[in-house]
Design a protein that fits this description.
- With 177 residues, the protein is α+β, with helices and mostly antiparallel strands.
- The protein is built from 4 helices and 4 strands.
- It has a 4-stranded mixed sheet with strand order 1-2-3-4, with helices on both faces.
- β3, α2 and β4 form a beta-alpha-beta unit.
- The radius of gyration is 26 Å and the shape is elongated.
Length: 177
């Protein structure tokens, strides 16, 4: 497992390039934050974790014996040394939850991007969704509000009809060239 990289993985590079292309700027592997998030966008107070489906147990719900409850997941646990892998994935999932809870207490938003969501068939949709979510977070945090203004007399339908009658028919209008 020493050969397994934690930085600059292919899924991480896909997300980094997609965000950079869309104008988002970020920092990599911030050491002061719990869990050392893969990407940190300070402007948005958001941490992005790009998780491998196997290592973080994407969609795997295990019972006490380590058997899969949900067969429709992209995480396949090896049949050899099964107890070790079940315990390892369970620990990883618990650690992830704890780190996300700590970040939330500190006021950070956490986004998890799964490796299977970055396959070529879903990649653009995932990156667009990520950009939309980041923009939504920014608008929420910076208090963008919609205000209902009172309707003025000029905006009523009667006022517009009166103006149209005064102008006459379109063929009577002057056109400047």
């Amino acid at each position: 497992m020493a050969a397994i990289r934690s930085k600059d993985t292919k899924p991480e590079m896909i997300v980094r390039r997609g965000l950079w292309k869309r104008g988002f700027r970020y920092r990599l592997n911030h050491k002061r934050l719990p869990g050392h998030p893969d990407l940190v966008l300070r402007k948005y107070r958001t941490c992005i974790f790009i998780n491998g489906c196997f290592w973080h147990g994407h969609g795997a719900s295990l019972n006490e014996k380590g058997e899969m409850k949900n067969e429709k997941c992209c995480c396949k646990i090896p049949k050899t040394n099964r107890e070790f892998w079940v315990a390892k994935i369970r620990r990883n999932k618990e650690r992830d939850k704890e780190e996300h809870r700590k970040l939330a207490e500190m006021g950070w938003h956490c986004i998890i991007v799964w490796e299977c969501e970055l396959k070529s068939s879903k990649r653009e949709e995932t990156l667009e969704s990520l950009a939309f979510t980041l923009n939504h977070i920014w608008l929420q945090d910076h208090g963008a509000k919609t205000v209902q203004y009172p309707k003025m007399e000029e905006e009523s339908e009667n006022y517009l009809k009166a103006a149209e009658e005064e102008l006459g028919e379109p063929e009577d209008w002057y056109v400047l060239h």
